Amino acid sequence: MVTRPLLFSRASADWALLWLRLAGSALLLRVHGLPKLLDFQHQLSLIEDPFGLGAHLTLSLAIFAEVLCPLLIILGLLTRLATLPVLFLLLVSLVWVHPEWSLTEGQFAWLLLIVFGAVLIGGSGSIALDRRFAAFTHPGSLRP
Q1: What average pLDDT does range 7-24 have in this prediction?
Q2: The whole model's pTM is what?
Q3: DSSP code of 51?
């Protein structure tokens, strides 16, 4: 039997996905999500409204993408689905709201795009609640 070193094992990929989920979501929550949630009224006067939906709806959608979705990603629940609003928000920010940003000015958004793009591609890994609930939602889909 050939053994693979830890660097090339499925377990290392699962730990890497957990790290990406935790680190990216914690940053997004702390830097953008919680300030919007905790100071909603003040944020209404600051929020950009690139699609003309109104400040209240735009801020509510931003809070959904920056608070609820990162919490789901941290837990590993509906992980790939939860990355989509985050990625959409980041792209809107970079393309429509701040098109004048240089790479240096937008580096945080670009790094978050990379992190959440990797999570979208890789999924939640096995260290996630998705894995626990898969036995109930898709019987026979998990190997013992």
Answers
A1: 90
A2: 0.86
A3: T
